[in-house]
Amino acid sequence: MAYVSMGEAHRRITDYLNRFSDAVYSQDVVSLKLLFSFSSNSHFLLPLADALNVFQDANRLIKQSDKYSQFGEIIVPLFRSLQNYRIGNLVDAYHAFEKSANAFLQEFRNWESAWALESLYVIAYEIRVLAERADRELAANGKSPEKLKAAGSFLMKVFGVLAGKGAKRVGALYVTCQLFKIYFKLGTVHLCRSVIRSIDTARIFDFEEFPKRDKVTYMYYTGRLEVFNENFPDADQKLSYALTHCNPRSEANIRMILKYLIPVKLSIGILPEEWMLEKYNLVEYSNIVQALRRGDLRLLRHALQEHEDRFLRSGVYLVLEKLELQVFQRLFKKIYIIQKQKDPSKAHQMKLEVIVKALKWLEMDMDVDEVECIVAILIHKNLVKGYFAHKSKVVVLSKQDPFPKLNGRPVNS
Amino acid sequence: MMNQGGNTQTVASLDPNLVENVGFEWGTGFELKFVEHFRNRYVVDASQSQTSYLPSTTGSGAVSWNTHGVDNRSIENGILPNSTYHHEQHTEPLVRNVQDGVNVTSVASSSSLGTTAVSQDYSGYTPYPNSSDPYSYGNTGYQGYYSSYQQQPNHSYSQPVGAYQNTGAPYQPISSFPNSGSYPGPASYSGTYYHPGDYQKAGSYPSSGYNNQTNSWNEGSYANYNSHQYSNYPADATGSYNSGTAAAPSLQYPQQYKQWTDYYGSTEVSCAPGTENMPVATTSNQVPTAPGVTAGYPTTNSQLPTTYTLPWQQDSSSSQMPPLQPTAPINGSHDSYWKHGAPSFQNHHVSHVQPQFQKPMDSKTPYDNFQEQQKVACPQGPNLQYPTAQQTPQSFQSPPVQTPLLDNRRTSKLQIPTNPRIASNLAIGLQKTDKDGSTATSAAKPAYVRISLPKPNEKVSSHDAADSILKPGMFPKSLRGYVERALGRCKDDTEMAACQAVMKEIITKATADGTLYTRDWDTEPLFPLPNAELVNKDLQNSTAVSALPKYKRSPSRRTKSRWEPLPEEKLISKLATASNDTVKFSGWTRSNEKDKKPFSGNMSKENGLNNIKFLLSEQKSANKSAQRPVKRQRLAADGFNARDNGDASSDSDKEQSLATYYSGAIALANSPEERMRRENRSKRFEKGQGNRAETNHFKPRNAGAGNLYARRASALVISKSYEDGGSRAVEDIDWDALTVKGTCQEIEKRYLRLTSAPDPSTVRPEEVLEKALLMVQNSQKNYLYKCDQLKSIRQDLTVQRIRNHLTVRVYETHARLAIEYGDLPEYNQCQSQLKILYAEGIEGCQSEFSAYNLLCVILHSNNKKELLSGMSRLSNVAKEDETVKHALAVRAAVTSGNYVTFFRLYKTAPNLNTCFMDLHVEKMRFKAVSCMSRSYRPTVPVSYIAQVLGFPSVSLTNEGCDDKDSDGIEECVEWLKAHGASVVADNNGDLQLDAKASSSSLFMPEPEDAVSHGDSNLAVNDFLTRASSSTS
């Protein structure tokens, strides 16, 4: 830490204080938000933290002047947070930051207009990031990480302030998105529901009026929730919205969206191009896509096994697993096509043993009963049109479109 | 609620008066105005107080008061646009009542006890009726007051009713004051204070009406007091007066709440609120008079923020009076009361209530704890003792509250909207404030900040600390340096706190003898480091105490709240007098003395006498009630003795003389034992200053036998506060102190849910539990018996904090039994415990149980998210386990709907997997048949279905192995028919399922044993039959 003279320290602190009060008085949100932004404005704030360490009397400085002292409740803890942040004491930094954020929220509530929304965004963001880091610190010390949860409840409070009528409502979606991030990270996605409800049901505010970036984030997370629920049409719609509205240059975001959109699309029978998987580095899906194309059950199972951890973590495993039926369908279709080439007149009668043999070639060891069951399920789910004659062990396919395409509809369940 | 009856009664009897008064009341323009005002702002309290006041004051006093009140309000109202603010203000009147009590007390300053306050109140009352001479406190006999008060109360009481009705619906509930049975009001605390028990029974006291009355009287007295006091003592400067009054109301608002809540709680009324106010009043008085203005002043100043917190009413109050709040709101009556009242109030209450519920604790323990820790002996009885103990701790808290300068700042700061939700942080706030109070560490940090984030306070650097001690600009720079040097030596917070205390004293002293600016601080030797431990202990005690109330549910134990105010005084007095010694009459005496200065000595003395008398008489009656809990009393007495012995009080001359004077007065009026008690009580205030002696006593006692409860309780409390504070690691808690070591040798024990702290004599030690487990495992009795036994084993393990292989085995055994029996709720309990135990690294059948867990999720909860996380948590080792593999296979079969695989797995299930699958078989079969009827044409042989769908059921296979097939087919046909399938016989006589016909007719029959609450295990008949059949 570079040495900072007393005078310099004093100068830096008063500079900060001046900026703060000027920003508030002139309602200059651009400069105000910089003053809160630990993570992106560190070139300005870190030297300030050094100064605070040298010049211990900052609190007095704040109290001395009316100009500053009215923001004392915000700034004093903020300074303390900054100091702790500087020395890497993140848990304490979080505590102080939350205190400051609370004070700011109080002020914000009293401001009629929503001019300071941007700085509230910054605070919401910073508090989340700080909480995550503080949790990491806590976990490293063997304590239970709970700060993120605390940040969640703080943001819920912020949401409460914003979610009314009026201009401030525009900010609600940003906070919602931050909340989503927290809930998804904590694995408490069920908490999202209440927030979603208040966004979705609010008629006073058109969803389209929210900032685009928030809409995209919101759609992304709600889409993911739909994936969990295996509600594919809705998931498709939401994730597609996110994809089409998201900044085309931010490939990381596109990749995140695709990570969920691809399984959803696969489930409704739409396969991605290989180049896209490569472009966005989603090659873990390529074998699955291959398996679907070829009706290669073995490949599908291998692919699932290979990336099991990843799929489980992202939560798409169960979705991908369900593709098995589509792979069967594809396999049956291939058999049907071959039979048709050999003997078109008997093509619509598919013997069970043929299927069993085909599976054996794929090293899938399934006996007749099991295959029969699969066939029954395929017919039941309308992936195959026709019926199964138990006595003769033959699948009788419909002559018209025996293997209907999904065409954007999910498999019947 | 007990009091309710009493109250209503009083109301009825008062009616005539009411009428009278109403007329009067309405005659006054002010009243009308107020009512209107209130109507708009649901200031129930205000209106109430106001009304009550009016009737009582028939004389000039009333007028003066009125005007005063009006002035204040209007001014304040004008200043504060905020609704919150208004809210506060309205409550003001009530607050003032409290304040009155306070003021009076300070003036009188005769007795050093809490009781003093009470008596003073009364004295205040007496003058009031006369209205001619407000200062004749002493002159009017208590008796007179008493008698008159009977009537008076009526007025006041009834009055509110009228007022409310006029104001409209919202207020009406108030009129139904039944609640106020407990309501007695701050003033009444004298009565309640001494005989909490009695009071409730209405034994010694005239009635609940009395209490109510008291309130009103307080107000009255207040009026007198305020209006006259200051004018009489110009020396004090009106400025101070203003500040005092203004500050007080705002401050007290929260307290008031508590009061109300308390009253409603129907517990003893806390005299605390009244007392609490005391400090405020004192401060204002003090500041002008005391030479050490600077010394006292800065402190109060720094604390100012607390007052601002008022907008957070609840919060701030919580910080000040933590114990009170949480407990009080609980009462139903209270709630209802508030419901009627302003909605905003309701909110507050709600928030209060929450904390309470969250920490359901054994109230008993804390109670004992207090006794022990604080050594405060209360002759009056268990209830009483308790409060007393609390009082001491609270003294730390209160100081922050006193703000002479409130007025200016309030305007600017009050606007901060209240967030009732924050109240949940109560405990933290308490702890913090305690600290602050005693150490005065945190400079102008607003109370609410403290509440939400206690931690930072502790971290205050020495610099900051110095800051708080020395207000910048007020002290020579060299002094500042000195303080910083001194604090710089401190290694941790506790030391720092101790240092600060010492330092403060030094400075105050210096200020007092005028050497503050002349002394060479640069060369002044540093004082030896105070024993931080002691201070710390003290702090902890106080923390514990303050935290306690949360745990108290029962009204009788809730007494504490009323004690809160006292502590404040202590601190103040400390500041003011600048003496470090342990004073016998610590808090009260001193403050009183100080206060007295400005006022005429005679008056106060006389007051004191009167008061004392009054007290004594009350005490006597209280004694009766006190005797019931003999044991506790004994403890308390012990505490007393110890105290006495250890107490080599080095009082200042003045104090000494005062003390003697008082004791003399007491002797006059009362028996020696009474006096003893009083002294003891007074001593509990020493705690802040005379920690040493106390802590010493404290330790040995803890070690003593029978202290288990206390120890545990203290640990609990401390731990609680730790958790709340979030600043200290859980490891710091002495969990061993909480742990019971069982002595019971019985192997068999019925399960009984604990409602109090476990008794070691009924808890089995580990060896016995081991045997008990074996016994259960080998028992031939039914599940219900085993479940009961296992639960009691689990309980014993839990209370002894045994977490080892035995624990795991117990839970595993229980889980398995539960699975076998299909008792999912119990299984879930065990499973969640097992998860924790495994996570702690205790070996067991992890794989088996993770398999069960998976199956449970798949088959029963069907929660995708949970399933995913369950699967991703599986270790590679676990995945190799047969049970787990099987579970995973089952999962795959279920998700794909592959019934063939499912029933194959069903037949080969290891361990208890079958039991889980059992529960799913029906669903799976139904799905399978509907699938078949959709995809098969024209028919499916029933034999095939029976084979594929696992007929016959496992349970039947045992019986007839030879003709298994036919059995299966029969059962299958039965099942199919029950589900609406159409079964036909073909040419060969083989049964076939007519797929087409069945596809539209299948249905899921209602389960026969379904019960409305969804858990068939809970069906009474079923339960009974199973129980009887399996026992036999």
From TrEMBL, chain A:
Q: Which domain of life is it from?
A: Eukaryota
Protein name (database record): Uncharacterized protein
From TrEMBL, chain B:
Recorded superkingdom: Eukaryota
Spell out the protein name for this chain. Uncharacterized protein
